[in-house]
Structures are given as C-alpha cells and as structure tokens.
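### Sample
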Amino acid sequence: VKQDGRNGLRFYAPEMQKHSERALALATALKNAIANNELALVFQPQLDLQHHCLIGAEALLRWRHAEWGVVSPAEFIPLAEQNGLIVSIGWWIIDRVLEQLAALQRAGRAELSIAVNVSAVQLVQPDFVTELQARVAASGVPAGALDLELTESVAMVNPEETGEKIARLSAAGFRISIDDFGTGYSSMSYLKRFSVDKIDKSFIDEVTHNHEDKTIVNAIIHMARNLGMTTIAEGVETEEQRNTLQRKGCDAIQGYWYSRPLPPEEFAAFVAAHR
Ligand code: C2E
Ligand code: CA
Ligand code: CA
Ligand code: CA
C-alpha cells in the first residue's frame, strides 16, 4: 500500500467499500433470484475426439438481474457458497438438468449425458446422496446420464468423508468428474476416485506452443488413462488446439471451437443437428 501521510488509505478504502457493498447487494438479491425467474442454465456441447460425435454437455448457470444485467457465476457462486444459498440453488440446477435429460431421452438421445457443477458446500450436506437419488429416481432418468463435476477444493474440506461420499455416488451409478485438476493442491492419489478428468482451460490456452503446458497436458492424459479415467479438455478455442489434443489421445473436448454454451432451445437444435 502506497503511503500518503495521514490519509494514506484515502484512495483505497472507498474502492474496497464499493466492492463489499456490491457483494452484499448481490447476495441479498440472489435470495429472490429463483422466485423471480432470474436464473437459467446454458448447455455447452462436448465432442468425442475419437468417434467424432456429440457426447453430451456441461450445464452452466446464468443470472440475469434487472438492474445489473448478467452477473458472472465466478462472482455470484462464491457469495452463494458463503451464505448457504448454493444448496437450494444447487437443487434447482439439478432439477433443471434432470428435465433436460428426460427431454433428451424422449427425443431418442439416451446416449447423451449432462455434467453439472456441484459445489463442495452442497456435497457436504449430510442428506446429499439420498436426496439426489430420490430426485433422480422421480425423474425416471438413469443415474449414468448425470455427470457430477467436483472441483479439487472439495477434497480440502474433509478428505475422508468426501472420499466416502464420492464412493457412494459412484456405486449409485453417477459419473464423477474432477474439475480443474492440477490448479489447486490436492494429491494425485485423490484422482483415482474419479471417472473423468476435466483438463483446465489454463493448460489448454498455450498447449500448441508452450513446452511446459504440452508436457503437463501429456502427463495428465497418460496418468488419467492409466487410472482408467476419461479426459475432457475445456476451453478449446481453435482447430489447432483440437488437433493437438486429438494427437495426444485426449478423449473429448469442450470449448468455443465446437460450441458456446447454449440456451435450452438452441441446445435442442444443436442436438438434433449432431449425431
Ligand atoms: P468451469 O466449471 O471451469 O466452467 C468452464 C467455464 O469456461 C465456463 O465459464 C464456460 O462458459 C467457460 N468456457 C467454456 N469454453 C470456453 C472457451 O472456449 N473459451 C473461454 N474463454 N471460456 C470458455 P462460466 O460459465 O462463466 O462459469 C465459470 C465458473 O463458474 C465455472 O467454471 C464453475 O466453476 C462455476 N459455475 C458455473 N455454473 C455453475 C453451476 O451451475 N454450479 C456451480 N456450483 N458452479 C458453477
Ligand atoms: Ca465445470
Ligand atoms: Ca473446469
Ligand atoms: Ca476452469
């Protein structure tokens, strides 16, 4: 912090206050977001690189507020995790994804799966597994169509209890992905609990020309394969990145090159056009 005599904090304090005022206002407005119909999901298609076909999508949350416009999930999800709202929002997300999966089944596309981001705060709820199983059973959708994406920070909270929960979810037939592996601090032994490894965009951005990123992506793909896991690279924006990943044996990709995240009607049209 730059010192400026007695008023050293003059230039910084108002900024910080503005920031926390916005956070507080957002957190308050978020309480009514479901009731006010301000939340929506978009679906980002995933492409199988070996068979060149659509395999499913990742559901991503959007919040459109009357005053602030579209608020990024990177900004409001941490707030919803702090005040616990993420639990009810998380169930709302899962119900919408189950509706989308049921629609895909009716359309004769039962081979497609949808990935949903599950916050650690929701996962640690004592009734998470039984509640999830009840909702999935009521929807008529097979558990295998739902892919649960957990970030590695999940492991930091309570490794033993989380590990046991992941084992129960796998036994119940859900696919479990580890999101952003390698960007945090979890141990490699933790990886073997998961069925899918999502390779973070930060490793993909320069995968075609940065030697270190190439080496990291190679190592992730080989390690995942040897552990019997599937790899999905995220944030693939160019054909060159796609080709590099295909050569390295990455199983699937997701990113603007294949498709942006799409609202439900556009996603339905994308599905109809892609076998
Ligand atoms: P994430 O799970 O790593 O999701 C990938 C992010 O990368 C998404 O940002 C997606 O829109 C963006 N993306 C995908 N392809 C490309 C690309 O080719 N180029 C670029 N530049 N970006 C790409 P988004 O939707 O803003 O979400 C940000 C983060 O917010 C997500 O990161 C996830 O951690 C969290 N999030 C989003 N939706 C949910 C949700 O429903 N529940 C929870 N708990 N977290 C969510
Ligand atoms: Ca994700
Ligand atoms: Ca990710
Ligand atoms: Ca990411």
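The chain is about 45% helix and 20% strand. This sample (EAL domain-containing protein) is used throughout the tutorial notebook.
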